[in-house]
């Protein structure tokens, strides 16, 4: 009896583990985004009503102030007209703010569709394995669902329990809701994209292992590694030639060797790390697109380069958002959203400090050097076109 009960418990655990899959988490996440959009509209209506009521109170105070002195009011008709014109101008400014808030509403309302588009892209390519997902993606999506629902619950409690909400409090709730939704959307899309990269089938032959040095020694640069391998090959060829019989010599012939130069000019040895645009580790990431980041850039790492020990201020799983304007096939303009992963920033860093743009080094005649990651992302947004952003493997586009 006890064994049957344990078997039933194990079967129930297996069913629960099968239920916690990526497709169910994505569905829960989209439902949370829908609740966030409803709450945003409710808070927006509340803030508008509060602003209108405050405007009406101001008008009542002005009427009470102008009530004594009927002649003064009649004589100041011109001033009333100017007040009417100024009120009309302030109303136009308010409409501009509503246009800006409409973009925030669009960000919240389109979050579920963008997450679903990223999921559909992986499901069409991978299949049922992508729908089940792995443990890393499940944990990432669960954490985003918990954070988003916690924020929604907190705002709902303040909204329902408070008898009166000031405009400043409603505005703070709106800002908090927008920031939480934006971060959840970016992190969820990034998690699905990373799972898509992990589950992609390997195409072509596997890359050979990099050159390994003695433990504890400094890593060699690619140029020194190539020269060392060529030197070893040339020595081995020299030994093979010396061991093999000299068939070119003919008996009775004399070969005259030229005299060596008395003072040969010794060329100076180049500095191993001089005149380089990128760090050696950054060049390895550029040459091998499937080479993942080291554990230094994962959760719990120190964000230090394993070669030059340069520190990069970034969070694991973070991505930068770039909004660019492109053209469709019919010539109409379209807003396109690109996500820049941490790997792009790491493969752009220089030795010890600074960054250099990989796209400029590959596609343009002149190079671009930036001091911070923020300046590098601003350079990508301002200076590079949509076609150039599409050519990099660490920059992907969000489907509308």
From TrEMBL:
<feature type="region of interest" description="Disordered">
    <location>
        <begin position="213"/>
        <end position="261"/>
    </location>
</feature>
<feature type="region of interest" description="Disordered">
    <location>
        <begin position="41"/>
        <end position="98"/>
    </location>
</feature>
<feature type="compositionally biased region" description="Basic and acidic residues">
    <location>
        <begin position="48"/>
        <end position="62"/>
    </location>
</feature>
<protein>
    <submittedName>
        <fullName>Uncharacterized protein</fullName>
    </submittedName>
</protein>
<feature type="compositionally biased region" description="Basic and acidic residues">
    <location>
        <begin position="74"/>
        <end position="83"/>
    </location>
</feature>
<feature type="compositionally biased region" description="Basic residues">
    <location>
        <begin position="63"/>
        <end position="73"/>
    </location>
</feature>
<feature type="compositionally biased region" description="Basic residues">
    <location>
        <begin position="230"/>
        <end position="242"/>
    </location>
</feature>
